[in-house]
Predict the 3D structure of the following.
Amino acid sequence: MMEQSNSLLLNEEALKLCTDSRKPVFVYEWLRYLDRILPAAQKADIKSVQKKLIEQLTSRILAAPGPPTRELLAKCIAQVYSVGDTYSLFETINTCNDILKGRDDSPTHLPVKLAALRCLGAMYETLGRLVGRSYEESFHHMARWLKNAESQGRTELLYTFAKLVKGLGVGASSIHKDLYKILKTHMSDRVVMVRTAAINCLTLLIPVYPFLYTNEVESIGTLCFKALESSNYEVRHAVAQLFGALLCTAMNPPRRYMSGNRNQQNASSLKVVTIEDCFGILSHGFLRGGIGGFLKTGTVAVAGGQKEIRIGVALAYVALLRELGPLWLEKNLIFIIKHLMDVIAKCGPLAYTNNPIQAAEVVYMRRCIGYILRSTVGTILSEQAQIAVCKQLGTILADCINSFADYNLDPGNEKMLGPETYASAQTAIIILLEISCLVRQIGTAVTPLFTEASGIMEPVFACLLHPVQAARIAASWCLRCVTISVPSQLTPLIDRCVNRLEHMKSCGDAISGYSFALSALLVGSIQCKLGIPHAKSRLCFSIQKVKNLKRLKSTKKKSNKYN
């Protein structure tokens, strides 16, 4: 029986012979066959049966088909008009509009309206401007239905709006303003699938509606941060793509709006958003985590921000930088790195706390910044550009060292650590971890960075004395990764750490930092093909043995004194 469904026209006699439970399957198989055969069919073959075929297809709309059948039905109707003639196109559109116009919102009639909606979306997306101005009537009916629709209906309507925008582009400019008002309302819908559909539609609207990327950048940014509240992955991904399209277009407006005598007046009224403004919007949302404030005001990290918002903004950074491309990123590398380091440095006051929840929040923000760097610098740049990133990170790390250069290592003069120290620690940790990843990724090509006098070995090694323990651990890990890519540095670094331990044995931070480094280097030596001399490992353990004996004698003296 299924073989009889493989024909251009629906075999209605065979359909009547099917049981009620098999009829939907028969129709679905016929639509599957049409979907495969129509793109390859000759125009003459389609024209000979087009009138009957369109009648059969449009009649299936009233049969209340399910979601898979609706999708295939819409694709087939659009394909018929794309391959064949369009003489009955407006008649089909009017048929769908009449269905949408009906006020029957009962559950039994809903599949019929959804099928008509899906068919309209497919025709507008596939045929584009061939539909003329019929889209205005369709938009009117859809906007009216949207006011009272359930979540499924709202989602389908918004997806249809997106297809309309995608197919017609600037040709549908008469509805762009009203559509934007609708999308603003539904971007904060309580149902996440409706929210996602609205965001995706707005993403498609941005390139064809100049008002959005010239005057509404900050307003849309605020809407996006609100949409990220209590969001899931789909919403966060959609918001990231929206930010990428919006900010990229705002920084590089399409030439058709910026040049030419015809658009000279529009070109003079349009303004190009600066790089600083675009990244300032993202940093504000990341630091505040959706807690109050205006986008134009400077800010530091705020405790209690929503994780969903910060994850969404991190994804938005990645989407924007990928949208701008590797050439743009190489050209603006210094600005991007400094911007991200400035963002994480503003977490310093938040890290200056004894509250474990707040401290965990800072770690979470660090992970987000690390993800941004790994997903952009670590994936889309060339090897030479990545080496340049290492150099730039080393320069910023040297500046971080200056913030604790006056830290007194004398055990008798303890110094209270302030927010500035913790700010430098957050920056140092991010830099050290990214350098660790880059040197492992690049390999031996980074050797000059760590063997020449102008390299970055000194700033990395100096972080072993950072007053914040997390920075010392990050520096130790970085040295281990360096020695895996540059094996010739393993033994000299071990000697250097041993000598520093001998000369600075009265300083707790120095003992901690160099001990971390020694343990990292010794454990990492197994991954180094050159290995280390046996005497080096003996030397390290003998130092520890001597220290243990001294500590034991000191403990005995104290106990004898009190006894």
